[in-house]
Design brief:
Layout lengths: L5 H5 L7 H15 L9 H15 L2 H9 L13 H7 L11 H6 L20 E7 L1 H6 L1 E9 L2 E9 L8 E4 L15 E7 L6 E3 L2 E8 L1 H6 L1 E5 L6 E5 L8 E4 L14 E7 L7 H13 L7
Parallel strand pairs: 1-5, 7-11
Antiparallel strand pairs: 2-3, 4-5, 6-7, 8-9, 10-11
């Protein structure tokens, strides 16, 4: 019989684990399946990777295959008698057997490859969707347009409350259809947040700029500020400086676990660009009497 390098067929190292072998098989099977590829040699390549996977996915067959050692691909060889006695009940003559037949004969008294089509899992898809901060906070239902192997389709998707920028939702079984009993693939939905006119998200926390007058910053104030659930009162402590961040606990984005992040007001102190006569008098009086020297 002729030696076949099953590891080379799948493009994996000889010490690859089961997940690496499965991943390599699924990729190559999709590329070369006769129902998906019309490239020359695709069907033969598909059969080659299916044969390799049938052996390497089975720990007992893989161990028996590894015991045969490494040889040049296509080299004629015969397994030693002790190998046959340890691993297979097939007859003593190997000349008319294929390597796959030999490994398939392990544990049973007849030769021959496993018949029937090879099951193949459906294709996974990656796509992205852009939603508003309000929809991320409260949850929403969106229509997702998909271009698949069978044509375009529309999928209604429920986005749960608490998603955040960069999060990936897995829609099980909504991807490509499996073949010959294989599982349907999944859709991985990447969440993107639309820019908001007020808030800047950071995971489940939100930030916004809050402009104060000099007297509000100096004397303190109660300021009505926006949140995703409606306006609330924020207490500005006396002596608040520009650049300080005031926190409102639990007023940020929902986190999907019954709580929310925090809301931060980034303080910016603004001044009037034009002054009335009286305002100018008051500022001049403040300038004369104040002992505050920020550059001292």
């Amino acid at each position: 019989m002729k030696y076949k390098d099953y590891y080379a067929a799948l493009g994996v190292a000889r010490d690859a684990d089961a997940d690496e072998i499965k991943k390599a098989y699924r990729k190559l099977a999709r590329q070369n399946h006769p129902d998906m590829s019309k490239a020359a040699g695709a069907e033969a390549r598909f059969k080659e990777v299916a044969e390799a996977y049938a052996t390497l996915k089975d720990s007992e067959k893989r161990a028996a295959y590894d015991e045969l050692g490494r040889r040049p691909v296509g080299e004629e060889f015969a397994p030693p008698p002790q190998w046959r006695q340890s691993h297979t009940s097939a007859g003593p003559v190997f000349d008319d057997m294929d390597l796959a037949d030999l490994l398939a004969a392990m544990g049973r008294g007849q030769r021959g490859r496993q018949q029937g089509p090879v099951a193949m899992d459906g294709r996974d898809y990656d796509t992205s969707v852009q939603i508003s901060l309000e929809d991320a906070h409260r949850g929403s239902r969106i229509s997702l347009s998909l271009a698949g192997e069978g044509g375009d389709s529309v999928l209604e998707v429920t986005v749960p409350p608490g998603v955040h920028e960069g999060q990936k939702l897995r829609l099980r079984g909504k991807g490509g259809k499996g073949l010959h009993g294989g599982a349907d693939g999944d859709i991985y939905l990447h969440i993107l947040l639309k820019p908001h006119p007020v808030f800047r998200p950071d995971n489940h926390d939100l930030y916004f700029d809050l402009a104060l007058t000099p007297w509000e910053a100096a004397l303190g104030a109660e300021i009505e500020v926006p949140t995703l659930d409606g306006p609330v009162l924020l207490t500005v402590p006396p002596g608040t400086r520009s650049g300080r961040k005031l926190r409102l606990r639990g007023r940020g984005l929902a986190n999907g676990q019954g709580a929310s992040g925090d809301l931060y007001a980034a303080i910016r102190i603004d001044v009037p660009t034009t002054l009335t006569g009286r305002e100018r008098e008051l500022f001049e009086e403040l300038a004369r009497t104040s002992r505050f020297h920020p550059r001292a």
